[in-house]
Write a structure and sequence with these properties.
- By secondary structure, the chain is of the alpha+beta class.
- The chain has 9 helices and 16 strands.
- The chain has 3 domains: 91 residues, Rossmann fold; 125 residues, ATP-grasp fold, B domain (D-amino Acid Aminotransferase, Chain A, domain 1, 2-Layer Sandwich); 63 residues, ATP-grasp fold, A domain (Dna Ligase, domain 1), CATH 3.30.1490.20.
- A 5-stranded antiparallel sheet has the order 14-13-12-15-16, with helices on both faces. A 4-stranded parallel sheet has the order 2-1-6-7, sandwiched between helices.
- α1 packs across α9 and α2 runs antiparallel to α3.
- Bound molecules: adenosine-5'-diphosphate.
- The site of adenosine-5'-diphosphate has 23 residues, from β9, β11, β15 and β16.
Length: 301
């Protein structure tokens, strides 16, 4: 197969591993900077052009679109879809997953366990908002945040109120969430490919830190999932329409709750923690599915 990895940098761990894994399985793999792709949008012959030449006879695309480049990145993926190329994740599913609120609304509709979550636009509604999630302690999240930045634990009602007012004063969009204390600063990242969890790790926050992000000093180790956690992760990925995803779960008193579904999950942490060739499994999935490229995103939201 001819595989194109859409990534801004060939030296990034995940990009490098996907290229290696593809080549090890006998494929021709190109890393293409999607910001340097340009397109001709005509009815008869849509193309993606890179360094002056159309990218032709591509069998599969692996999008690794950075959060800050979603708009242009998904346009490039969409153009490949127009040409009929199979993609590890469809453009619509990537856009959908980038919006945390939309993501939670879709998961809720499917009856997937979530931390009780609220959001509001006006600061006049703060008290009602805090009440909907059961009062303090609670977690406040910036909708645009990643890697744990902009995730704040407010221990008291007053603290919650001030933080929400401060964020809203800056015009930042936030959501407010029940604090899952019993998770003890641990979360679970499930790597879902197709309809299977192919690897899972737990991440534990640094002492005194409720956020388990590796970027915030957390540590990772492999973990055995319960059947319920496994099926929650698969259902969450499916609800979002993602073929390859990282589903983040907390262990709560009321069962597994999903925090987020990521469309470009990093491979470094999970390959190191589990010793599983995640990149190889993603390429294997493309081998099985690229030929009969018939399924289309049918999620309505
Ligand atoms: P980001 O997308 O920036 O990583 P997350 O929503 O994943 O933000 O939150 C970062 C970390 O904070 C999570 O990995 C988890 O450990 C912790 N966390 C987030 N939400 C909650 C919550 N409602 N209850 C307990 N811990 C939480």
């Amino acid at each position: 197969m001819k595989i194109v990895i859409l990534s801004q940098k060939a030296s990034l761990y995940s990009t490098r591993r996907l290229k290696e894994a593809g080549e090890a399985r006998g494929h021709e793999v190109h890393v293409i900077d999607y910001l340097r792709c340009y397109m001709n949008i005509t009815a008869h012959k849509p193309q993606v052009i890179y360094q002056g030449k159309p990218l032709s006879e591509v069998d599969a695309v692996i999008p690794r679109i950075g959060a800050s480049q979603t708009f242009y990145g998904t346009a490039v993926v969409r153009q490949f879809e127009m040409i009929g190329v199979f993609t590890a994740n469809e453009s619509q599913a990537i856009s959908r997953s980038r919006d945390k609120l939309r993501c939670l609304q879709i998961l809720a509709r499917e009856g997937i366990g979530l931390p009780v979550t609220g959001f509001a636009h006006s600061t006049k509604d703060i008290e009602g908002l805090i009440d909907t999630v059961g009062g303090a302690p609670l977690v406040i999240k910036l909708l645009e945040g990643t890697q744990g930045i902009g995730v704040v634990l407010a221990e008291t009602y007053q603290a919650a109120k001030s933080v929400i007012e401060a964020f809203r004063g800056l015009d930042a969009n936030i959501l407010v969430q029940e604090f899952i204390k019993e998770a003890g600063g641990m979360d679970i990242r499930c790597l879902v490919v197709g309809e299977k969890v192919i690897a899972a790790m737990k991440r534990q926050g640094a002492p005194g830190e409720f956020r388990s992000n590796l970027h915030r000093g957390g540590t990772a180790a492999k973990i055995k999932l319960t059947p319920e956690e496994r099926s929650t992760a698969v259902r969450a990925a499916k609800a979002m329409g993602l073929r390859v995803s990282g589903v983040d779960i907390l262990r709560s008193n009321h069962g597994p709750v999903v925090m987020e579904v990521n469309s470009s999950p990093g491979l470094e942490g999970i390959e190191a923690a589990t010793d599983i060739d995640v990149a190889g499994k993603i390429v294997e999935f493309l081998e099985k599915n690229a030929k009969n490229n018939t399924s289309r995103d049918r999620i309505k939201y």
